[in-house]
């Protein structure tokens, strides 16, 4: 009886963690091998309710993957992710990805071109560059989806 009670208590205690894992949004990240900022961005996603999985790709194959999935050359950054039919290019904050998934606009996805300091995964020290998160339209045009101030 004690073992059963202990097992039930343990199961109840683990329930919130199991629910959180079940609710985590899967996101597939394509990146180059050993990229520290890509790994840091994936940690940011995990801390914010996503379940990232990474796949390493060599330079040319990664660029081809980006272009084949609708990322305009001027929007390219270091990693590309796929989530629920959308492309996420670069250091896009998790909150903006959530907003995209909630609003479901007709678009390719979101992009933060280049690698601005202070963006998720690029948050080293106190310096923060101003940057925009762009919504990439299916015709290749872009709109500002969110803006972040620098210091």
Structure description:
By secondary structure, this protein is of the alpha/beta class. It has a single domain (25-148), classed as 3-Layer(aba) Sandwich (Glutaredoxin), CATH 3.40.30. Helix content is 36%, strand content 26%. The protein has 4 helices and 7 strands. It has helices at 2-23, 36-47, 59-68, 94-103; strands spanning 25-31, 50-56, 80-83, 86-90, 109-112, 131-136, 142-148. It has a 7-stranded mixed β-sheet, sandwiched between helices. Helix 2 links the parallel strand 1 (25-31) and strand 2 (50-56). The radius of gyration is 18 Å and the shape is globular. The termini are far apart. The relative contact order is 0.15.
Low-confidence stretches: 4-8, 14-22
Q: How many angstroms does the end-to-end distance come to?
A: 61 Å
CATH topology: Glutaredoxin
User: How many DSSP helices?
Assistant: 4
* Number of β-strand runs: 7
Q: How many structurally independent domains?
A: 1
Q: What's the CATH architecture?
A: 3-Layer(aba) Sandwich
- Approximately how much beta-strand content do the residues carry? 25-35%
Q: What is the average of the pLDDT values?
A: 89
Name the shape in a single word.
Answer: globular
Radius of gyration: 18 Å
Structural class: alpha/beta
Order the strands across the largest sheet as they lie in space.
2-1-3-4-5-6-7
Helicity level, as a percent range?
25-40%
Q: For the record, what CATH class applies?
A: Alpha Beta
- What would you call the quaternary organization? single chain
Largest sheet: 7 strands, mixed
From N to C, what is the helix and strand string? HEHEHEEHEEE
